Amino acid sequence: MDYKALAQDIIRLIGGTENIRQLTHCATRLRFEFYDKGKADAKKIEALQGVISVVEKGGQFQIIIGNEVQSVFRAIKSEMKDTPHNDTPKTGGEKPSIVNRIISVISTTFTPVIPALIGGGMIKAVLSILVLFSLVNETSSTYEIINFISDAPFYFMPVLLAYGAAMKFQCSPIMAMTLACALLHPTWNSIVEAGESISFFGIPVVLVSYSSSVIPIILSVWILSYVEKFAEKYSPSVIKFFLKPLITMFISIPIALLVVGPLGNLLNDLVQAGADFLNARVSWLIPMLMGAFQPFLTLTGTAWAMTPIATSQISALGYEVVNGPGMLASNIAQGGATLAVAVKAKNKDLKQLASSSGFTAVMGITEPCLYGVLLKLKRPFVASMIGGAVGGIYAGISGLVRYSFVSPGLTAIPAFIGENPMNVVHAIITIIISFVAGFIAAWVLGFKEDGTPDAAAASSAIIKAPTAGRAAALSEVNDDVFSQEVLGKGAAIFPEEGKVYAPADGTVTIFFETGHAIGMETDSGAEILIHVGIDTVNLQGKYFTPKAKVGDQVKAGDLLLEFDLDAIRKEGFDTVIPVIVTNTPDYQDISPACSGSIKPGDDFIALK
Predict the structure, then answer these.
(1) Which residues pair with 31 in a beta bridge?
(2) Which terminus of the chain is more exposed, N or C, with fewer CB under 10 A?
């Protein structure tokens, strides 16, 4: 691959280096934030050789490259160095939602830190192996040295996160890291350990230990960014060199100690308590949900939302149960489903792509198979969710935990070696179950390789309108997953009432606990997804009242769901209802059957 040529093509198609507001990367994708995202041509970028796919989510424009992402990232950064930049903030484009902004903050903050967390986690895993085989004694100085090296990234997490947060909030990384150092200063730690009440200019100070914390430093750097801008604006140029850092530190650090830090620590504790509560009562639930829906989280860019919880647990407990066990099941299941495609496929190119990306997935990197195979074939995507859920249930019931922060896969098995010697055994069993379940599900569900309907193809049919409102094309939906037909073709309705009716005779196959999405398989063979609103999953079921359940046999026109349309709009959510035919490859043509005003029961989507 010619990395420089690819970098130049990407830069040209995103509107030049001057349009790049922020650029980071993770294990497989470039993550851009633009001044004007309208300048980026996603379709042309996706067509470039070396680009697997393009996703716009979580406030970021993400280009999936695969294992070569770091080389492409360096090539782009090299091109950026040769171009003068204007640091003046630019305006234009729509303002992202609160949820997208939060996800963007987490993603940008954690991305630079991941290598250090992985390094520390793998060293801890190696240390566990050395102890397991009696090569190192836990009372020896060798053990102590290796142990504190592995703990360093987690203990000094605030310092590492301060850098990424500073990049996100566009303030000085050095000042942000200095703030973090103040929170970790030995004197402050001594005060906290002493436990005696103190004050700052008469204001009581809450004693909190910030080592290994996550949320306090992100909030503190956010405040620092405003203080720094204030100091920059009002400091006379003659004395700005020393007055600006004086003002920034003297204001932002006390605010962090007095207000922001304690508040962030409280949020940290609440998140941890919530995770502990669920794990203590329904240990299988979180791994099962993560195993099933990790592909969706990756697809929508919301997988980063779990990172603070996982890192907080590892820092506080030495292990985590929220992210790793379910991700292990999901990654392996995606690999199993993709390798089933590789075995069954007759098309040489598909077989080769599925073989390489499936192998990469079981190693722990799933984006190549997710975007290159599973999403395009649809049914193997569902199979990977089934395999992930099955493996996740076992992971939860067995009490599987992850001891270090690495991308779960075969190469990360040492991350599951720890105090409980059976934990790694449970990890291996989880891997076997997830792979077999994903592989078998993909084999049974099948897939279509070319343009002709396969043996499981559905017959022609008409999908009726599930609610009243204005019929529209999916291109009008303000969400790339739907507008770019990633999940399949269909149409949308901008609703005028808070009711959803069955669009055909069939069976309810999916009904999200949050009530915002319904899956149906019609008697004619169409697989339909009705999604009420954009990002409404964040309402956690508020304003939604299901009127049916999974397994129900329904007739066209039966009431499936009621929702408070006005309340959802007042919460700031887009209420458009995309109706997707998720088995799109089974049809030669899927097209809207109407436009304009529509009422329940009208012809809505034609399938041929």
Answers:
(1) 24, 62
(2) C
Cα distance between residue 212 and residue 180, in whole Å: 11
Catalytic residue among 185, 516, 531, 594: 531
Q: Read off the pLDDT of residues 320-375 as tens digits, 9 standing for 90 and up.
A: 888 889 999 999 999 999 999 999 988 887 888 889 889 988 988 887 788 778 88
**Integer Cα distance of 108 and 244 in angstroms:** 26
> Tens of pLDDT along 558-588?
999 999 999 999 988 999 999 999 888 778 8
Residue 480: count other Cβ atoms within 10 Å of its Cβ: 18
Q: How many residues does the chain have?
A: 608
Kindly write down the DSSP assignment for every residue of 445-472, as one continuous string.
Answer: H----SSS--TTPPPPEEEEPSSSEEEE
* Distance, CA of 608 to chain centre: 35
Whether 531 is catalytic is: yes
User: Can you list the positions of beta strands (E) in 345-399?
Assistant: none
Q: Helix, strand, or coil here: 107? A: helix
Task: Please give the average per-residue pLDDT across 121-138, as a whole number.
Answer: 83
User: CATH for 461-607?
Assistant: 2.70.70.10
Domain ranges for the chain: 3-90, 156-276, 282-445, 461-607
CA distances from 490 to 475, 499, 602 (A): 10, 19, 15
Residue 204, CA distances (Å) to 196, 223, 252, 269 in order = 11, 20, 17, 21
Question: Which residue type sits at 44?
Answer: K
22 sits in which H/E element: strand 20-25
Quick: pLDDT tens for 404-414.
777 788 988 88
pLDDT interval class at 493 (50, 70, 90):
very high
Amino acid, single-letter form, for residue 65: I
Which one, of 179, 163, 174, 171, lies nearest residue 256 by Cα? 179
Residue 26: active-site member = yes
**Pairwise CA distance, residues 149 & 353, whole Å:** 39
Tell me the CATH number of domain 3-90, given options 1.10.10.10, 3.40.50.2300, 3.30.1360.60, 3.10.20.740.
3.30.1360.60
From the list 25, 26, 369, 426, the catalytic residue is 26
Residue with tokens 């994903």: 438
Kindly compute the dihedral angle of the four CA atoms of residues 170, 172, 174, 180, in this order, to the nearest 10 degrees. Answer: -60
Residues 6+ apart with CB under 8 A from 25: 31, 69, 70, 73, 111
